[in-house]
């Protein structure tokens, strides 16, 4: 009875801990709530496992501690096959569940969308502008859950130690990324010198930017605001300083930004 | 019979070997001397790596780059990683304890190839010295211990080449050691001693050595190609010449993921020796322990691309490596449950060796849980290359392996020296290490999740407080080495005499004097059928 209530208590603590989302940065993309859902499940399972192991360990160390002068041995238990099968099966089931669940999350994030079906891949001009390689060789980061054709396509060039964002449709070149809220965005990324990575913690997204290997990253921002873009791959002495911002605008403010920054007033 | 087996092992030039302390500074062929040589040498490099870690934590007490130059910071982090992996953990859990213990456990008087053994050791000091001096002469490598091209092709070439040459030497040493262990365990067993009678550490070393022999040559080959790209301007990994940088990552991680198991499996083996002795119970589930080691060896070879989830691998590959990686948790879990079952119902002596061993269980389970999380592609895509990963692998490699190394030193020091270590100092050492370690690396999980990438000298000022807490933890870890160093040195001269078998253990290194004689036993090698036969009726 005591054991059962302890197990229930540990499970409840695990579930309670997992329901706390204050550990994570704010959610600013369609990916983020999915990510946080997975995070909470893993956090719950992890807490339950950890408390279980920790509890048994501490209990054993106290309950079975050697008294002074005791030179006797413990029981000559060499194993217990049914017990060992149980604690092989439980982790196997947990791991299988975690794997299937995270696959489901990954699929809903758009990670399993093959690049051939990808909305943005139809614009061959964009592809050839990026690189001479055939379209099939572009590597994808995580896709977007909407399946819509991207409203905004931005070419990203990473170099030591800056990101440059160019908007092919309006000839804007910017050191910050500006995107409209609620619309799918697709980044076509290339690196000039060494490997960099594009990371926005609030979007829960990261993709390496690889010299000689164009990559695509798609996401849909959901929350207006300014978030950091951080280079996450060691790229040289100023790696820590390779940061900029992504500004998520409301639709009107985004149009405004495009108009103000376009070098060609006619196109705006 | 040649003189090799009938008299004390001859030196390199077949002269008689000195009997006193001088043999530790020469080309000894005695596996125990070589084991101690590995232990002391790698501990020296641990201190060097620790000073480098202190430099990193000092830089990170402020959010701006103000302690080291940016180039020097990258050199320091590269050297820290390389030294801790290749000059401390790999040589100490394999070379030091492996050389000392494996011949005892198989009932042999030495390793299968004593000369190869000495050569393997003597490759390490020059490689380490070369690596460290490169920092003072022209600058060390700045591209991290992973040396990803094109960065490693564009940073100063001299430091990078020294790094490559050192790592190849150290890898070569590791391969020679691996071959020696496989040969010793499979071919040099005392007649009649069955594989399934071997202590678990032998199985761990067999599994580890298979990984070493299969994967280390791939690293060596890869680094030779990298060196060609630097020196001869070939284009294997240079995208400007049609090379492919992602291929390097595949080849690098084909070694460097198994390297985690090369650092962790021997620690699992050592813990499996220590827990039964101090809890007076047989190791629980011997057979499943053996099979889980073999399963970890197999799975460890097919999970490398989980280090590359953000490199742009195809979806099916991400899925495969997620599932394969997650399943490592199953055999690993078996081992932890079996250790807990070993403790259950025992007569547990909570001495320094046991405190470190039990703390290993706590730390490693935490690192294993974050490891399963990191195996999930959607989880990894946010925290990859952040301080979350830094925290994860320090929980595995420090909280796991280094805690086991200290546990092992407290456990086998009486055998190595014939003297007991001081328990009070051991307790102080443990408390400082455990608190310092968790203070240092615990907060880093939060830092990574919330936006701090790894390998940076400057960061968002909102992370200052947690970084300072982490640095205080690092300071405690540094201080913890002082009582330890004092203990091992002072006890050597004036410690309590240990006797042959102070722990009343059953494995064969305890069935001889402390320290043991050349060729291990005064009489014939004992046949230990039940290395964990605690609680059983006395053997006939």
Summary keywords:
heterodimer; A: 268 residues; alpha/beta; Immunoglobulin-like; 2 domains; six-stranded mixed β-sheet; five-stranded mixed β-sheet; 5 helices; 11 strands; 22% strand; elongated; B: 540 residues; mainly alpha; Cytochrome C Oxidase, Chain A; globular
Task: Spell out the blueprint of helices and strands.
The complex is a heterodimer of chains A (268) and B (540).
Chain A lengths: L1 H17 L12 H33 L17 H28 L15 H7 L8 E2 L11 E8 L2 E6 L4 E3 L2 E4 L4 E7 L4 E5 L4 E5 L5 E5 L5 E7 L11 E7 L1 H11 L7
Parallel strand pairs in A: 1-9, 2-6, 5-11
Antiparallel strand pairs in A: 2-3, 3-4, 6-9, 7-8, 7-10, 10-11
Helix pairs in contact in A: 1-2, 2-3
Chain B lengths: L2 H4 L24 H29 L10 H37 L7 H9 L1 H13 L14 H4 L2 H31 L12 H32 L13 H35 L6 H15 L14 H13 L1 H15 L8 H24 L1 H7 L3 H31 L5 H27 L14 H31 L46
Largest sheet of chain B: none
Shape of chain B: globular
Tell me the quaternary state: heterodimer
CATH class of the largest domain in chain A: Mainly Beta
Which strand-content bin applies to the residues of chain B? under 5%
The CATH homologous superfamily of the largest domain in chain A is named: Cupredoxins -  blue copper proteins
User: Please, how many helices of chain A?
Assistant: 5
Average residue-wise pLDDT of chain A: 84
- Give the class of chain A from helix and strand content and strand pairing: alpha/beta
Q: Could you state the order of secondary-structure elements of chain B as H and E?
A: HHHHHHHHHHHHHHHHH
Number of domains of chain A: 2
Helix/strand-derived class of chain B? Answer: mainly alpha
User: Which pair of chains forms the biggest interface, and how many residues does each contribute?
Assistant: A-B, 82 and 97 residues
CATH architecture of the largest domain in chain A: Sandwich
Poorly predicted tracts of residues of chain B: 1-13
CATH class of chain B: Mainly Alpha
Order of helices and strands of chain A: HHHHEEEEEEEEEEEH
Radius of gyration of chain B: 23 Å
Into which percentage range does the β-strand content of chain A fall? 15-25%
Question: Can you give the mean pLDDT of chain B?
Answer: 93
């Amino acid at each position: 009875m005591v054991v059962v209530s302890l197990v229930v208590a540990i499970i409840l603590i695990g579930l309670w801990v997992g329901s706390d989302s204050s550990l994570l940065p704010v959610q600013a993309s369609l990916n983020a709530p999915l990510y946080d859902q997975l995070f909470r499940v893993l956090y719950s399972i992890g807490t339950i496992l950890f408390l279980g192991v920790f509890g048994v360990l501490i209990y054993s160390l106290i309950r079975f501690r050697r008294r002074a002068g005791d030179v006797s041995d413990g029981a000559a238990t060499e194993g217990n096959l049914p017990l060992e099968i149980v604690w092989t099966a439980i982790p196997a089931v947990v791991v299988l569940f975690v794997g299937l669940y995270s696959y489901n999350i990954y699929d809903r994030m758009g990670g399993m969308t093959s690049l051939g079906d990808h909305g943005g891949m139809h614009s061959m001009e964009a592809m050839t502008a990026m690189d001479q390689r055939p379209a099939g060789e572009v590597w994808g980061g995580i896709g977007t859950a909407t399946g819509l054709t991207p409203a905004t396509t931005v070419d990203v060039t990473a170099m030591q130690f800056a990101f440059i964002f160019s908007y092919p449709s309006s000839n804007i070149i910017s050191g910050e990324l500006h995107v409209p809220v609620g619309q799918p965005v697709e980044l076509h990324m290339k690196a000039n010198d060494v490997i960099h990575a594009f990371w926005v913690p609030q979007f829960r997204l990261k993709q390496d930017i690889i010299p000689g290997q164009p990559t695509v990253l798609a996401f849909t921002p959901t929350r207006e605001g300014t978030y950091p873009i951080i280079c996450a791959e060691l790229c040289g002495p100023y790696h820590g300083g390779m940061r900029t911002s992504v500004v998520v605008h409301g639709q009107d403010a985004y149009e405004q930004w495009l108009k103000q920054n376009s070098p060609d007033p006619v196109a705006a | 019979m040649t003189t090799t087996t009938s008299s004390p092992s001859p030196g390199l030039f077949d002269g008689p070997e000195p009997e006193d302390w001088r043999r530790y500074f020469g080309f000894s062929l005695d596996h125990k001397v070589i084991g101690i040589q590995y232990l002391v040498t790698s501990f020296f490099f641990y201190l060097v790596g620790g000073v480098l870690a202190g430099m990193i934590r000092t830089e990170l007490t402020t959010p701006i780059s103000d302690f080291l130059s940016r180039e020097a910071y990258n050199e320091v982090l590269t050297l820290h990683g390389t030294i801790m992996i290749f000059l401390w953990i790999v040589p100490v859990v394999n070379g030091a304890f492996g050389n000392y213990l494996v011949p005892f456990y198989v009932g042999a008087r030495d390793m299968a190839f004593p000369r190869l053994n000495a050569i393997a050791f003597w490759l390490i000091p020059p490689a380490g010295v070369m690596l460290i001096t490169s920092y003072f002469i022209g600058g060390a490598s700045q591209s991290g211990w992973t040396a990803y091209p094109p960065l490693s092709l564009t940073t100063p070439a001299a430091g990078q080449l020294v790094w490559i040459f050192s790592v190849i030497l150290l890898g070569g040493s590791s391969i020679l050691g691996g071959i020696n262990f496989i040969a010793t365990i499979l071919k040099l067993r005392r007649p009649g001693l069955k594989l399934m009678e071997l202590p678990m550490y032998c199985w761990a070393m067999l599994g580890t050595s298979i990984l070493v022999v299969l994967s280390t040559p791939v690293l060596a080959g890869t680094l030779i190609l990298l060196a060609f790209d630097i020196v001869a301007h070939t284009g294997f990994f240079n995208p400007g010449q049609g090379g492919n940088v992602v291929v390097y990552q595949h080849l690098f991680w084909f070694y460097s993921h198994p390297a985690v198991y090369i650092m962790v499996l021997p620690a699992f083996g050592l813990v499996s020796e220590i827990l039964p002795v101090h809890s007076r119970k047989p190791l629980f589930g011997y057979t499943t322990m053996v099979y889980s080691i073999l399963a970890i060896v197999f799975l460890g070879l097919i999970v490398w691309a989980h280090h590359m989830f953000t490199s742009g691998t195809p979806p099916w590959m991400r899925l495969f490596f997620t599932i394969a990686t997650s399943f490592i948790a199953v055999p690993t879990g078996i081992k932890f449950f079996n250790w807990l079952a070993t403790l259950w119902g025992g007569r547990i002596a909570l001495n320094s060796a046991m405190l470190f061993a039990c703390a290993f269980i706590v730390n490693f389970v935490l690192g294993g849980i974050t490891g399963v999380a990191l195996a999930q592609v959607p989880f990894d895509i946010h925290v990859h290359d952040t301080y979350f990963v830094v925290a994860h692998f320090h929980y595995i490699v420090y909280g796991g392996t280094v805690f086991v190394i200290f546990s092992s030193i407290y456990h086998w020091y009486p055998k190595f020296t014939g003297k007991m270590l001081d328990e009070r100092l051991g307790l102080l050492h443990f408390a400082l290490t455990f608190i310092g370690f968790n203070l240092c690396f615990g907060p880093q999980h939060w830092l990574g999740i919330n936006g701090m990438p790894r390998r940076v000298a400057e960061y968002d000022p909102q992370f200052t407080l947690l970084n300072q807490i982490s640095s205080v933890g690092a300071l405690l870890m540094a201080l913890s080495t002082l009582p330890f160093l004092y203990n091992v040195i002072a006890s050597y001269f004036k410690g309590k005499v240990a006797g042959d078998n102070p722990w009343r253990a059953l494995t064969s290194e305890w069935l001889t004097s402390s320290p043991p004689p050349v060729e291990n036993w005064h009489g014939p090698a004992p046949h230990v059928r039940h290395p964990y036969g605690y609680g059983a009726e006395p053997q006939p």
